[in-house]
Amino acid sequence: MNVLRFILQNPTQFFDLTREHLWLVGWSTVLAMLLGIPLGILIAHRQGLSNPVLGGANIIQAIPSLALFGFLLPVPWLGERSDRLAIVALTLYALLPIIRNTFTGIRGVDPAVMEAGRGMGMTEWQLLWHVELPLATSVILSGVRVAVVISVGLATIAAAIGAGGLGEFIFRGVAMVDNRVILAGAIPAAILALLADFGVGWLERRLRPR
């Protein structure tokens, strides 16, 4: 109840921070999809590239979030704006599940279906757009689902570099030793993660091949 009272007493700030949080997560997810899905398709068709690309994404995932923010700070264009830096860092963290699931989805298409498409005279591009991607969509969305949940959680750390978001409440609460302020950031962030998981999961089930 104390948490709810705090939010009701600071509605403008709460909604501003929530909007910033969604902005960071939304842009990073879109960028991760624009990078990760083509990379996943590429390594599914070029097996020699799969280990370096997935290995690189794994290494990025293993870097602690604050350390990655620190590594990116000296980069001229990124370091000028904390929100840019946060979006790039969140994008890098979101790449692994999207690349891996795109690779798995494309490679999981039944070879007999591919042969049937080739027998009908389809080109490789037609097979990709009309056979592979439709059959792999639910698996790809499963990776996007994981990426969104990861981004919602890690976006709270972006407040440490001044990028805003619900992490502002968490860091402020830690500094004040006030659990009410900490929970005012943590609980809404957890709810956003659950809503994102449910929403993308619903879409994933709807697009699953029957």
Write the layout of secondary structure elements.
Blueprint: H1 2-9, H2 11-45, H3 50-62, H4 65-72, H5 76-79, H6 82-107, H7 111-119, H8 124-154, H9 167-176, H10 179-206
Helix pairs in contact: 1-10, 2-6, 2-8, 3-6, 6-8, 7-8, 8-10, 9-10
Describe the structure.
This protein is an all-alpha fold. Helix content is 82%, strand content 0%. It is built from 10 helices and no strands. It has helices at 2-9, 11-45, 50-62, 65-72, 76-79, 82-107, 111-119, 124-154, 167-176, 179-206. Helix 2 packs across helix 6 and helix 3 (50-62) crosses helix 6 (82-107). The protein is elongated. The termini are far apart.
In brief:
The protein is 82% helix and 0% strand.
Describe this protein with a few key phrases.
210 residues, 10 helices
In N-to-C order, the SSE pattern is HHHHHHHHHH
Q: Any idea what the shape is?
A: elongated
Work out the oligomeric state of the chains in this entry.
single chain
Mean pLDDT value: 87
* Count of DSSP strands: 0
Helix content: over 70%
* Major sheet summary line: none
User: What does the radius of gyration come to?
Assistant: 20 Å
Structural class: mainly alpha
Number of helix segments? Answer: 10
**End-to-end separation:** 46 Å
Low-confidence stretches: none
The proportion of strand residues reads under 5%
